[in-house]
Amino acid sequence: MLEDQDMSVREAAAFAQDARARARKELVISTPLVYMAWGMVWLIGYGAMWLSVRGQHPYTGPSGVAIAAVFVLAGFAIAAVLVIAHKAVAGIDGQSVRHRRIIGSTWAIGYLILLIVAPAVSSSVSTRTLAFISFAGPVALVGLTYILAAALGRYWSALALGVWLVIVGTSCAWLAPATILATCALGGGGAFLLMAVIETRLRAHGS
Amino acid sequence: MAAETELDPVIHAPARLRIAVTLATLRDEDSLSFSRLQELLGLTAGNLITHLRKLEDAGYVTTVKAGRGVTSRTSVRLSPQGRRALDSYTAVLRQLLDSASTNGTSPH
Fold this sequence. Notes:
- Chain A is mainly alpha-helical.
- Chain A has one domain (31-204).
- Chain A has helices at residues 9-27, 31-53, 64-89, 95-121, 127-153, 156-171, 177-204; one strand at 92-93.
- The relative contact order of chain A is 0.14.
- Chain B has 108 residues and is α+β, with helices and mostly antiparallel strands.
- Chain B has one domain: Arc Repressor Mutant, subunit A (Orthogonal Bundle).
- Chain B has 4 helices and 3 strands, in the order H-E-H-H-E-E-H.
- In chain B, strand 2 and strand 3 form a beta hairpin.
- Chain B is elongated.
- Chain B starts with 13 loop residues before the first helix and ends in a 5-residue tail after the last helix.
- The chains are: A mainly alpha (207), B alpha+beta (108).
- At the A-B interface, helix 1, strand 1 and helix 4 of A face helix 1, strand 1, helix 2, helix 3 and helix 4 of B.
């Protein structure tokens, strides 16, 4: 191609449109895919734990198989998100990279705190409180992380998702353990899947 | 900056238009490595340098070199002036296309 060749207005518009579409595809993290991955993990993971505690009298907690399934699913989701993000942001440097590090660290530290606190208080709190900390805690934590991401990067869809997840997590304080799991599966996983659909539509309309 | 009915000649070239649009996809404070930009646009290094120089001379992009020797890395960023120039270029382009479709003429 002659790179300094004359272009008609129509050709220029087509060049700009193609370049914009390609750049967005290559350089922007696919949030619908990320939302889809976490939505599936939460829906299936919390759903599996809910199925394992449904009908327990008294409540003894999710089965080992259900908990193991959650960790395996979460592992796959983390790996998938890292691959998607790494592919998109390769070669990019600047403020958004620093923001992603802050968001990632906040998320990791928050989960670490929950992983330490839940077993530490397990013998001194009621099963209902323990279920709230262990199952609703991560939902509220992820919600706060999305609010942080929205504040740092002006991602308004992330703000809506974050606020919703905090509401879902907090509302679990009044629920029984089995209902907490069902609420997190539908209110958390369902919200991620809904956001995946909304983001896909927004992207298709060029927002 | 170009007049409102004229396309900015610095941007109005296929390679430079693609460079500007690609860099505009990034957030304001972000830059893209020279090698990733080259890979995305499929240009030779020499060609890309030539076009980046023209954009840099117009104040539309800034290039930053970091490190030395084999670890050195060149990054390119669209300046605020470049972002404004691309916005006006796009607006003029849209105007010309709209007026051509209204008049039923070919927009050249």
